[in-house]
Amino acid sequence: MVSISWPRLVGRPLLYSISAFASLGVFLFGYDQGVMSGIITGPHFRKYFNSPNSLEVGTMVAVLEVGAFITSIAAGQVGDIIGRRGTLFAGAVIFGIGGAVQTLTTGFYVMVVGRVISGLGVGLLSTIVPIYQSEISPPNHRGALACMEFTGNVFGYACSVWLDYFCSFIDSDLSWRVPLFVQCIIGAILAAGSLIIPESPRWLIDVDRDDEGMQVIADLHGGDPEDLAAKTEFREIKERVIAERESGEGRTYEAMWRKYKRRILLAMSSQAFAQLLTGAVISYYAPAGWLGRDAILMAGINAIIYTLSTLPTWYLVDRWGRRSIPHMAIALGATGWFMYIDIPQTPKAVVVCVIIYNAFFGYRYIEISYIFKILPLTVRAKGVSLSTATNWAFNFLVGEVTPYLQEVITWRLYPMHGFFCVCSFILVYPETKGVPLEEMDRVFGEDEREEALENESEVTSLIPDTPRRGRHSRGWINRVIGGTNTRALYEPVASSEE
């Protein structure tokens, strides 16, 4: 038998390959969010489910978030125990099982069960993929790579809508079963790929698998284990892990909330407003108000523009930062206005407003992409799990009540979401552009607060020689970073500093 030797990826090819694979994870739950938007308007679907009312439709669409909410809370603990890669595999397998149940559904309740199961997988993936991506990305490219993930999410939504459109020409129940079956294929690909990609080096170092962690870091820096930049990054991460252990900082949710409450609230509120800005409304119910196949076609055109609008963020996020812009509120207000005056041009005007909204919503993702890296390694998975759980809770709320609100408050729905947009404008602060994960304390002023507390305790302590490794380790890291992205300036700590 002739053996095949596959080329070993290192450096940027490895980083981009991992990012592309991670994008498949967000493609998957982007697909799952969008696939129902075209299905629920189809005649065969409505006939099979006995013309479901608005609450039944809302339940079938939004119940996915119930499962996602449950596992997104657990994902923090799971990700710390079995690693980022193992959590990816588990999420992909569960998602595929849920897709199979939906495809073979025999009625409303089986569909609901299938959506919940898929949600369990989505909750794991939506929590762990951004963590994994942030932990393998260099600080000067992390924002761009996160935006690539979001493009993958929106592209998944666009693919689901266009598949719904083409399958709408099938004159049988396959018109809605085929799009649901594609979920199983995507889940299988993701599960297989998760067995190939490297584990997060930060997680490996955190569980004392230093040699493996160093190897992954070396591979990401070009493959040379003697590379100075790779060694510097390894030392930075290891010093941070040791400092956090010596500080006695707990890893419980209670300890995390007590020390990092500001960051947790910032992460959770950003995710909540991401849904209240009506992105879920557009994704789930974009065809609403149109008839038949034209509804899906309009959603498909909108999805293409939505996807294209995310591409500039690849370049802009690490140059302009992550703060929001107000154009979405204007577009949403205009949508409500045109629906209120109800003139012959209203349908076309609403389409234009929605397209403008989605174009700027694509840019807005640079505002929320940063929240996955503002927590330290000890509590990062747990903090992101709370943030993601908030996302799915509000996603469920929006998905469940939107069909009802569209009937009751009609045009007022869109200005309401525009108001939420204005509220979110001031949320994203401070800026984290180009900041390494180990230096987030400096951004939030916690280095200074901790140093002040240490100085105070030194004055009053009966044991003046108490070591303060945590402060010194961050001090030399600051000198290494020097306020730039250059990592080749590493020098060992002088003995006089110890």
Describe this structure in words.
By secondary structure, the protein is mainly alpha-helical. The protein has one domain (11-224, 230-437): Up-down Bundle (Growth Hormone, Chain: A). Helices cover 73% and strands 0% of the residues. The chain has helices at 11-39, 43-48, 54-62, 64-103, 108-136, 142-167, 174-194, 201-206, 210-220, 228-246, 253-276, 279-285, 292-309, 312-320, 327-341, 346-368, 380-408, 413-424, 440-443, 446-460, 469-481. Helix 1 (11-39) packs antiparallel against helix 7 and helix 12 (279-285) packs across helix 17. The model is unreliable at 1-6 and 450-498 (pLDDT under 50). It is a multi-pass membrane protein.
Explain briefly what this protein structure is:
It catalyses: myo-inositol(out) + H(+)(out) = myo-inositol(in) + H(+)(in). This protein is an all-alpha fold and 498 residues long.
In terms of topology, how is this protein built?
Elements: H1 11-39, H2 43-48, H3 54-62, H4 64-103, H5 108-136, H6 142-167, H7 174-194, H8 201-206, H9 210-220, H10 228-246, H11 253-276, H12 279-285, H13 292-309, H14 312-320, H15 327-341, H16 346-368, H17 380-408, H18 413-424, H19 440-443, H20 446-460, H21 469-481
Helix pairs in contact: 1-5, 1-6, 1-7, 1-12, 3-5, 3-17, 4-5, 4-7, 4-17, 5-17, 6-7, 6-13, 6-14, 9-10, 10-21, 11-17, 11-18, 12-17, 13-16, 15-16, 15-18
Q: Examine the secondary-structure arrangement and name the CATH architecture.
A: Up-down Bundle
Distance between the termini: 58 Å
**Quick one: overall form?**
globular
Low-pLDDT segments, ≥5 res: 1-6, 450-498
> What integer value in Å does the Rg equal?
24 Å
CATH fold-level assignment: Growth Hormone, Chain: A
Listing every helix as H and every strand as E from the N terminus to the C terminus, the arrangement reads HHHHHHHHHHHHHHHHHHHHH
What is the CATH superfamily label?
MFS general substrate transporter like domains
> Average pLDDT value?
76
Number of strand segments: 0
Task: Characterize the largest beta sheet: strand count, sense, and whether it forms a barrel.
Answer: none
Helix content range: over 70%
Query: In terms of structural class, how would the helical and strand content be classed?
Result: mainly alpha
DSSP helix count?
21
Query: How many separate domains make up the residues?
Result: 1
Instruction: Classify the beta-strand content into a percent band.
Output: under 5%
